[in-house]
Amino acid sequence: MSTFAVVDLGSRKLVVAIARPGREGTLEVLAVQRENSRGMGRGVIKNLREVKQALKAAIEMAEKDSDSVVEDIYLNLSGVNADILTALGKTVVTGEYITRKEILRAIETAKRITIPQHREIIHVMPTKYIVDDQEVEEPEGMFGAVLQVQVQIITHLLTVVKNFENCVEGAGFYPKEMVLNQVADIYALVTKEDRELGVMLIDIGAETTDVALILQNEIHRIFSYEIGGKDFTSDIAIGLNTSMKEAERIKVKYARLFSEGEEELIKVPLMDGGERNITSNELYSIIFPRAEQLFTWIREDIERAGWELRATSGIILTGGGAMLSGLKDFTSEFFKTMVRVAGPVNLNNILNLDQEYTSPEYSTFVGLLKYAQERERSNGRGGQSIFPSIKNVFKNIFKKNPRG
Ligand SMILES: Nc1ncnc2c1ncn2[C@@H]1O[C@H](COP(=O)(O)OP(=O)(O)OP(=O)(O)O)[C@@H](O)[C@H]1O
Ligand SMILES: [Mg+2]
Fold first, then answer.
1. Architecture (CATH level 2) of domain 83-158
2. CA 15 to chain centre
3. Which of 11, 42, 280, 393 is geometrically suited to a Cys-Cys bond with 264, CB 3.0 to 4.6 A?
4. How remote is the CA of residue 38 from the centroid of ligand 2, in Å?
5. How far is Cα 337 from Cα 329, in angstroms, rounded to an integer?
6. What is the CATH number of domain 192-344?
7. pTM of the entire structure?
């Protein structure tokens, strides 16, 4: 089994890991490289040359560190403009017992659903198998005449996918799989209980926010917004007439999403070289509208989806932006439900990963590692899918084969 790289290409940071499958289903991390990302904006490529250079440099550095060479890259995609739909596939069983080939064929037929020309499929996830009108977990080897499969298909804009592929290929690597941020986050954070009871996952990045509604072992809906932690920073910069650098420092150190408590005086260096003092309540009044705007958008979308948060295990907040002081209680108050701020969990099978990567800003990154681990382990033979109750057998139906 081969060595590969995962890349979390965010609007603010670029994190690369080189890893290889280890013993007993573990994943051995050989090197990690973190840089500020360049050429990205709101989750997409704004400057191809810059992103390519940054990517190449970071991967090569990790190669050097680990004394290895990689070709295959697992890369994340922002959820902005992604779409999810459900499709049904069906095949007649030729022998008496269902074979893996027939399962793949059924899934293939589900993929025939009409997808607009400007979109491309990035994930195909079986969520339900039905053998002669009876729902089963794992159809392989079962007796039956007709196999039906329900799949969730995630598509993305062709231009977005192509630009990322181009970028990876241009840097000299092979884009093995593109993984939606929400899918990676689910791998990193969502527990079995969450999946069953239902949960809303919110990843607040620097310039985008990705949301997934998960219920009964399925991704029910995905939403993404072009808003993130950096917008809080620019609100502070504009509101206080200070630089983005100072605004970021002030945000991380002093900003909090509650107005009670002791008033603190904060010294703010101004753009004209002067200085002034503001209170923590003034700072609160600058960031509050942005949080309210983001959550109002999310609330409108979940209401349109007919989603009842109260009946679920609540909300998981993640991404660097989730570390804003007071956000947990603010969110809980806003949505009237339980909230936890979390980073990646269950890292027992990932070897040599430093403790710092359990921070919320690394959820997508670690989720990519776990996703890749699963895909490499199954090696086309059917490990487990995004939701372990359903076997994942569809690796080979992904677009293409590695170079060479
Ligand atoms: N302690 C903190 N308090 C408040 N905000 C924080 C804190 N730490 C990090 N952030 C914010 O988190 C954001 C970066 O988050 P993250 O690293 O998840 O972004 P990204 O993945 O690069 O971006 P995206 O997912 O939008 O493409 C920045 O806006 C930063 O200001
Ligand atoms: Mg991110």
1. 2-Layer Sandwich (3.30)
2. 13
3. 280
4. 14
5. 10
6. 3.30.420.40
7. 0.93
